[in-house]
Amino acid sequence: MKVLLKKDVAKIGKKGEIINVSDGYGRNFLIPKGYAVIAGEGELKHFNTLKKNEEKKKKNIKIKNEKLVETIEKNTYVIKVNSGENGKLFGAVTAADVAKRIEEISKVKFDKKWFDEKINIKEIGKFKFKIKLSQGVRGFVVVDIVPIDKK
């Protein structure tokens, strides 16, 4: 029996594959559980249409994310903080602080989960952090931590 897999099935195949299975396995397990459908011509056309729509959606998301990274990378984000004489901060600058500053300057919605690494800045200086968005889009954010002028 030829079936079209609707979901990934361990040791059998991946979603979208057409495989040969025994009649009993297909009728008694795969089809009732919703893992597969009988590979008829109508099902194949329907699945191919869904696959094309999904690829188009992923492509649009990737383009949107690339524009977002381009917008974010244009700026160096300056954060003013209280610090001691030797450049050590009173407290720390975290991913949430950096994300908030990016939103203020770039006017884009930025999620702190997009940082590829943990952020816990405890001294004055320039830092470069990797960001990672969906669809394999990556970029960098430059953050400049400067002391507040005390006069």
Q: What would your notes on this structure say?
A:
The chain is of the alpha+beta class and about 150 residues long. The protein folds into 2 domains: about 1-60, Ribosomal Protein L9, domain 1, CATH 3.40.5; about 70-145, Ribosomal protein L9, C-terminal domain (Ribosomal Protein L9, domain 2, Roll), CATH 3.10.430. It contains 3 helices and 8 strands. The chain has a 3-stranded antiparallel sheet with strand order 2-1-3. Strand 7 (about 125-130) and strand 8 (about 140-145) form a beta hairpin. The protein is elongated, with a radius of gyration of 25 Å. The relative contact order is 0.14. The model has no long low-confidence stretch (mean pLDDT about 90).
Query: What global shape is seen?
Result: elongated
| DSSP strand content | 25-35%
Question: Unreliable runs, pLDDT <50, ≥5 residues?
Answer: none
Query: Mean pLDDT across all residues, rounded?
Result: 92
How many structural units, i.e. domains?
Answer: 2
Q: What series of H and E elements makes up the topology?
A: EEHEHEEHEEE
- SS elements, strand count: 8
CATH topology of the largest domain: Ribosomal Protein L9, domain 2
Question: What spatial order of strands do you see in the largest sheet?
Answer: 2-1-3
Amino- and carboxy-terminal Cα gap: 82 Å
GO cellular component, one term: ribonucleoprotein complex
Function: Binds to the 23S rRNA.
GO molecular function: rRNA binding; structural constituent of ribosome
Protein name: Large ribosomal subunit protein bL9
